[in-house]
Design goal:
The protein is of the alpha/beta class. It is built from 5 helices and 6 strands. The chain has a single domain, classed as RbsD-like domain (RbsD-like fold), CATH 3.40.1650.10. It has a 6-stranded mixed beta sheet. Helix 3 runs parallel beside helix 4. It is globular, with a radius of gyration of 15 Å.
Length: 148
């Protein structure tokens, strides 16, 4: 255990987060997602829902602010399910973490492809449909007045 860190951030996930560079992407995915088949690097968090995992990751990961969007969700296959119920919870957690950008939407197959290219996939036990989100890592700027 470390002081000040969310206990959901175990050693494997912390190592992956620390190794990520600016522009690298992380996917937080639900229990239905084919994570084992698609991930280049996989961290399993089966007992945790995606929203709670997002809060843990958001407590240490800066999101990219060089563009308008640094977070993408999977779009619903059925337009009547759009937006999926979990999207509001994702938006609240992202806002609390300081992200004020939009949450982009990727069609299901495009989301699968992008997640397969992500630096790390975090597989959760999320049971709500479309509980999938991709985040692009940003930079940590030096404090004002400090020369880089």
């Amino acid at each position: 255990m470390l002081k000040g860190l969310d206990p959901l951030l175990g050693p494997d996930l912390l190592a992956a987060l620390r190794a990520m560079g600016h522009g690298d992407e992380l996917a937080i995915v639900d229990a239905n997602f084919p994570a084992t088949a698609l991930a280049r690097r996989l961290c399993r968090e089966d007992g945790v829902d995606a929203v709670r995992m997002l809060a843990a990751v958001g407590s240490v990961l800066s999101l990219d602010d060089f563009g308008a969007v640094a977070a993408w969700r999977m779009g619903a296959v059925d337009p009547a399910e759009e937006p999926p119920a979990i999207v509001g919870a994702f938006a609240q957690v992202l806002s609390a973490a300081g992200y004020d950008g939009a949450i982009g939407v990727l069609a299901r197959e495009a989301f699968y492809q992008r997640a397969a290219e992500a630096f790390v996939v975090v597989a959760t036990g999320e049971a709500r449909l479309y509980g999938n989100l991709i985040l692009r890592k940003g930079v940590i700027r030096p404090p004002r007045g400090v020369r880089a």
